[in-house]
């Protein structure tokens, strides 16, 4: 058994995007993977935050994730746009670390988090459920061109209260 180092999670930068598009094409070949131009425009949008998973600081991207913060202050909602880890590194904690980074963004603005996930993606569904998400509905034929269904999942807004401080 090999010990795997904890993933390094940092900001996704423009130099990472070609690799992201390659991973995307491999993972989502049957469901209209984002092209490089899609990653470029997502990274530029001011309401989005994108993260990279790497094996070492400054290393190549092995996974990526993005979340948007939408709405007015006090009424924010967050939407997970994507989360992906290249096949050779799945199951090693990188997806969990990327999800935790995105949830920290949502928690800072006390926002609920929404996402879609293929109904047949049991590992991802289990990860989301372990992190407080619940299935809120089903979107039929959500993924194209495959026609696969998606669950819409939501995690309620979280607030971080200091230890020992409670509302009465």
TrEMBL record:
CDD domains: NAT_SF
Gene3D superfamilies: 3.40.630.30
InterPro entries listed in its UniProt record: AcTrfase_RimI/Ard1, Acyl_CoA_acyltransferase, GNAT_dom, YpeA/RimI_acetyltransf
Keyword Cytoplasm: yes
PROSITE patterns (alphabetical): GNAT
UniProt organism field: Gordonia phthalatica
PANTHER family: ACETYLTRANSFERASE, ACETYLTRANSFERASE YPEA
GO MF annotation list: N-acetyltransferase activity
Domain N-acetyltransferase: 7-158
Acyltransferase in keyword set: yes
Keywords in alphabetical order: Acyltransferase, Cytoplasm, Transferase
Family stated for the protein in its record: Belongs to the acetyltransferase family. RimI subfamily.
Protein name listed in UniProt: Alanine acetyltransferase
């Amino acid at each position: 058994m090999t010990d795997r180092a904890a993933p390094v999670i940092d900001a996704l930068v423009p130099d990472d995007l070609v690799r992201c598009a390659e991973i995307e094409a491999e993972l989502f070949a049957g469901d209209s993977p984002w092209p490089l131009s899609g990653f470029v425009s997502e990274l530029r949008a001011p309401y989005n935050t994108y993260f990279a998973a790497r094996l070492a600081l400054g290393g190549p991207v092995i996974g990526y994730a993005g979340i948007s913060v939408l709405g007015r202050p006090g009424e924010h909602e967050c939407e997970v746009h994507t989360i992906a880890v290249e096949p050779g590194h799945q199951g090693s904690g990188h997806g969990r670390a990327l999800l935790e980074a995105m949830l920290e963004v949502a928690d800072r603005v006390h926002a609920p988090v929404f996402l879609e996930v293929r109904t047949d993606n049991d590992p991802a569904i289990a990860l989301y459920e372990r992190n407080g998400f619940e299935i809120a509905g089903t979107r039929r034929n959500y993924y194209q061109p495959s026609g696969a269904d998606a669950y819409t999942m939501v995690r309620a807004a979280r607030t971080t209260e200091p230890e020992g401080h409670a509302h009465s």
